[in-house]
Design goal:
three-stranded antiparallel sheet, mainly beta, single chain, six-stranded mixed sheet
Amino acid sequence: NNAPSIPFIEEPDIGEIINGVFNISWEQVVDEEEDSLQFNITLLNPNNGTNATIVTNYGDNKTIHYEWNTSQHLESHYGLRVTVFENETAEGFSNSNTLGGNFTIDHTIS
């Protein structure tokens, strides 16, 4: 059994300013054995320390985005990590991708 592929983050972009409901998106993940998969998404501080859990145990093998309500978080600069994991195997292999920079939540823009 091998780990699923890396869920490379496509949105948000580094330096992007976001607000309201925003679609976090990542590349389609492949698992060679077609094991059942789910995702965890973590909001990070600018230094990549954990700030908050956005969602856990989300989606399945075909999932490539999550509709996130940013109004639940303070205006600031943040990082992001998307982790994919096998949720029905003994090994529970996983892989993750951390955004290579920060984005900004700004509730004053429309």
